[in-house]
Amino acid sequence: MMHLAIEEPKIEQFFHHSKDEIMKALKFIVDNDIKDFSIDSKSLELSTEQKAELDSRISSFHNDRETGRSWEEVKSDLIR
């Protein structure tokens, strides 16, 4: 079973960022109407379907490492 390890951020770390980064984070929270910051550990687990898809993609990668795209190609598409 795969578990995602996510460290809970500490409020002190938040204030080590620049004023612009803090304002962007606060704007994101307000814009997305985020009210609940509690972490439900069950929501962090992959579903059976997600695990199967991930296993399939990993298997495909190991079978043919020439398929897929490089990070530079993906990043270029995201920037557009």
Q: How many beta strands in the DSSP annotation?
A: 0
Number of helices: 4
Coarse structural class: mainly alpha
The overall average pLDDT, rounded, is: 77
Overall helicity = 40-55%
Query: Strand-residue fraction?
Result: under 5%
> What is the CA-CA span between the terminal residues?
37 Å
Largest sheet: none
Alpha carbon gyration radius: 18 Å
Poorly predicted ranges (pLDDT <50, ≥5 residues)?
none
What series of H and E elements makes up the topology?
HHHH
Q: Categorize the overall geometry.
A: extended
Describe the structure.
The chain is mostly helical. It has helices at residues 11-14, 19-31, 48-63, 71-79. The radius of gyration is 18 Å and the shape is extended. 0% of the residues are buried.
List the helices and strands and how they pair.
Layout lengths: L10 H4 L4 H13 L16 H16 L7 H9 L1
Question: How would you briefly describe this protein structure?
Answer:
This protein has about 80 residues and is mainly α. The protein is about 50% helix and about 0% strand.
Descriptive labels:
80 residues; mainly alpha; 52% helix
